[in-house]
Amino acid sequence: MNIPQFDDEELRLYAEFMLDQLRKTDGFWFLGVENAFSYDAAIKANEEVWHTMGRITARDIRRSFSIKEKGLQGLYRFFRYFPWAMISGYEIDYKDNEIVVSVPHCPSQEARLKKGLGEYGCKRMHFLFFQSIIQELDRGLKVECLFAPPDPHSSDVFCKWRFTMDQEGSSG
Q1: CA-to-CA distance for 122 and 118, rounded, in angstroms?
Q2: Are 97 and 112 in contact (CB under 8 A)?
Q3: In CATH, what number is assigned to the domain containing residue 30?
Q4: Domain annotation covers residue 19
Q5: Tens of pLDDT along 56-111?
């Protein structure tokens, strides 16, 4: 890649720009599949893509940012670099035995609502995505969906996820 030199402010602005491009590409890709084929086809394709990307994203972040920790500590460090945590403003509550991720701002769902399309059922897609992330980081991690569309939710949070270690602990 040919990445130009940026000062700190330019780099921050460029990172924001790239995250916004990622978000828009994801949204328009889904809408394109939905319009060309069907809502169900878009959901199925989305689940397949995100399931694959979870593993790739976890592997790339772990390697790029030298995340050596396993378990909840490794997952917590992963979220620091995870693009969608920045895009959606993840609220991450890390306690001794769990990480709870709340998503107060979901650009995809907000855009659909603004256009009168209604929320799409993203629960399974995100479950598969998070499952593939934790399988790559530490097979001893578990993910549980507390709620996500199509589940009912309050207006200030779209979904909430809990990550824990299974009883046997980290298995690498």
Answers
A1: 12
A2: no
A3: 3.30.1380.20
A4: yes
A5: 999 999 999 999 999 999 999 999 999 999 999 999 999 989 999 999 989 989 99
- Cα-to-chain-centroid distance, residue 61: 13
Distance CA 137, CA 154 (A): 31
pTM for the full model?
Answer: 0.91
Residue 161, Cβ neighbours under 10 Å: how many? 19
Answer yes or no: is 27 within a domain: yes
Residues 62-69: contacts with CB under 8 Å, at least 24 apart: 62/136, 62/137, 67/137
Structural domain boundaries enclosing 62: 8-165
Determine the 3-state secondary structure of 17 from DSSP: helix
95 - beta bridge partners?
Answer: 98
* CA distance from start to end of the chain: 32
Rounded Cα distance between 54 and 126, Å, is 9
Residue 80 within any structural domain of the chain: yes
Question: Edge-to-edge strands of the sheet including 159-165?
Answer: 91-95, 98-103, 159-165, 141-147
Q: Is 1 part of any domain?
A: no
Q: Is the distance from CB of 72 to CB of 98 less than 8 angstroms?
A: yes
Segments of the chain assigned E as strands: 91-95, 98-103, 141-147, 159-165
